[in-house]
Amino acid sequence: MSDVCVPEDLLTRYATGDDLPEETLWVLEAHLERCPACRARMTRVIEADPVLPVLVESVRVAVGPRLGPGHGRLWGLRHRARRALARWAVPAVLPWLAMTVAVPLAATLLEAAGPGDMPPLLLLIAPLVPVLGVAVSWNRWTDPAHALVAVTPQAGLTLVLRRTLVALLVTLPPVALAGLAVGASPARWLLPGLAFTAVVLAAGALTGVGRAAVGVTALWSVAVVVPTLADARDPVVLAPAAAPAWLAVAVAATAVLARFRDRYRLAR
């Protein structure tokens, strides 16, 4: 459909809300985003229908006052910026990501005020930061439009990975800087954190990202965080010798994610 424009009957069925196959909807909407000619043709199809123009006008009248004047260069720039952001993240998630960053930064402050013979608290929490970032980026509780977005034809693993990338770019740099300040080098926790991210994405395809993140966080807390704080010793699983094991976990989780990637086309 990228080389040949959409047939008229298919545009008509799409404009009138006919039940089209899911894969057809995905390709058609992707094409309409890039093709002004087909969008113009669809406009003519809508205008030729005796019912659709009335429906479109009623929606415009209801929604128009909430959108502001919609004129001027500044408005156009804001509109394009919001459209670009919507492809990678949603504004409602950004405050949650900021809260995610606040957790390890609070651990850094506690580390500075606590006894010096304990392992860095940030070192124990840092591998979970990517997990929390992924959880808030694809979650019905943090995204008011999640249910609507998750069932659209273009939703799927690609959108999940885009939001995951944004979450990582927002959360990892400040945590890495804080880790360097307290002796929790990113070289020790970054690979485990990325492995956890792959595990959450793979398990999230089956159970939902939020549930997978809760499970990974609980397991890490019980198996590593609590015993480490009790023994006051650096965890073996975060030693340099454990890097090959974490790499194997990441590769295995990526393979599982590739196998069940279509599950992300369901609303979770």
Describe the protein's architecture and organization.
With 268 residues, this protein is mainly alpha-helical. It has 2 domains: 8-68, no CATH class; 88-265, no CATH class. 70% of the residues lie in helices and 0% in strands. The chain contains 13 helices and no strands. It has helices at 8-15, 22-34, 36-48, 52-63, 73-86, 94-113, 121-125, 129-137, 146-150, 157-182, 186-207, 209-231, 243-259. Helix 1 packs across helix 3 and helix 8 (129-137) runs parallel beside helix 11 (186-207). The two termini are 29 Å apart. The mean pLDDT is 77.
Give the helices and strands, then pairings:
Layout: H1 8-15, H2 22-34, H3 36-48, H4 52-63, H5 73-86, H6 94-113, H7 121-125, H8 129-137, H9 146-150, H10 157-182, H11 186-207, H12 209-231, H13 243-259
The helix/strand order is HHHHHHHHHHHHH
- Could you tell me the radius of gyration in angstroms? 23 Å
Strand content is: under 5%
How is the biggest beta sheet arranged? none
Q: Specify the overall morphology.
A: elongated
Structural class designation: mainly alpha
Helical amount: 55-70%
Number of domains: 2
The total of helices stands at 13
How many β strands by DSSP? 0
Straight-line N-to-C gap: 29 Å
Mean pLDDT: 77
Low-confidence regions: none
Short account of what is shown:
By secondary structure, the chain is mainly α. The protein is 70% helix and 0% strand.
